[in-house]
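hey so u asked for the seq, here:
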Amino acid sequence: MGIIRLEDQEAVRGIASGFVPGLIAFLSIVLAINQLVLSQEFGSAGEIRSRIQEVKGYRRDVEQIASAKPSPVLPTGFLSLVVRIIKVKAVALEESVGPETDPEIRETIETFARSVIDETTQANESIEQARPGRINALLPVLEYNDSRQLFEARQLQHDSDKALQTETQQALSSLIEALELFSVARIQFRTTYTQRVLARLSRQLLYVGLPALVAVIVLGLLDTSLPSYISGELSVIIIVTLLSIAVTPLAVLAVYLLRVAIISERTIAAGPFVSRPTTVQTDRNSDFE
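ran it, structure tokens below
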């Protein structure tokens, strides 16, 4: 169309000179990412031992509520176990409501329990179809609304505590505990996945950053007589190829950051706090009544 003329060597050199400081900044990004990832691994022997004990304690809590040992090691298997625990506790809650319970309260609890059972069934089917791995375990449960379920369970516990039988109260408390365990597991796997992605991003930026720096140096050193002994079409292909190599680090950075942002945005809620609009009742806060 003649709008962009890549044969203009001065314009190409101007573009290449602008890329140089940007690519140097990318090297700084690589260093910063490495420091961020490695900082999570540093610690004294006592700190590392404390982390291990906390993880073991969490796994014991899951195994205790599931009445199963040992708990799965792979993220997909572990999340599947916790989701099945939630389903079992929801079924127990539904079955614990006796005919002597107030009809309105019984209907509310049964409706809530049935919604939890349906959501856990869908989530578990998605997890079973996924391949082992952190991201494959996270994707099926990104939309699982454990925050809403926790809020509704705690609201039921507050509003109907005196009207419920002991068995129902215990079933509701067990369901709340299972939902809290699920929130911890999902956030933990999201954290480790993010660390792994950032480490991979650092390596990929290093792989593509050095060729990109070479490409912009070549672009800046191109002789203005290049079109005289190389055909115009070939010179355009050479320049476009070098420019493509030069922008590769930016493309890699955008892809990885978008991936991390999507995972983080969809799993940002923790516990009973809801970060996205939902159908949760917001007309009052039962905790302060």
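The chain has one domain: 9-42+73-288. Residues 66 and 85 are 6 Å apart (CA to CA).
lmk if thats what u needed
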